[in-house]
Amino acid sequence: MAVSRSHGDARTEAFIAARPAACGPSSGSAVKFGRVAEGAVDIYPRLSPTCEWDVAAGHAVVTAAGGKITDSNGAALHFGSGREAFIVPEFIAWGDPQATL
Question: Which three-class secondary structure string do you get for 37-94?
Fold first, then answer.
């Protein structure tokens, strides 16, 4: 699991704590998306708000590599839908497109 080095929040920490054997070293967002895309990690959760422009390129890379990015309920992310301040409330990047919570 890829984990954030600077954007921890209670929901993400609880998600990680439920999977203690799955954690790898922390790194920046671009690296985490890349690690999911290359298959080095299976999952990257970010259950706190961030901006669309912080997620969109990573979404494209992970999707092109055969993975997926969803919200915490498993729904697909959509960009440019007029959310206030272009905020993505949460996401989970999955290396395996068949993976679920």
Answer: HHCCCCEEEECCCEEHHHHHHHHHHHHHCCCEEECCCCCECCCCCCCHHHEECCEEEE
Among the listed residues 43, 40, 91, 37, the one whose alpha carbon sits nearest the alpha carbon of residue 66: 37
Pairing type for strands 68-70 and 91-94 reads: antiparallel
Amino acid letter, 46: R
| Nearest-angstrom CA–CA distance, 30 and 86 | 19
Beta bridge partners of 46: 91
Q: Give strand pairing partners of 3.
A: 26
pLDDT in tens, 26-44: 677 888 999 999 999 899 9
**Residues in CB range of 82: below 8 A, 6 or more apart:** none
Run of H or E including 3: strand 3-4
Specify the amino acid at residue 49.
Answer: P
Q: Judge if pTM exceeds 0.85.
A: no
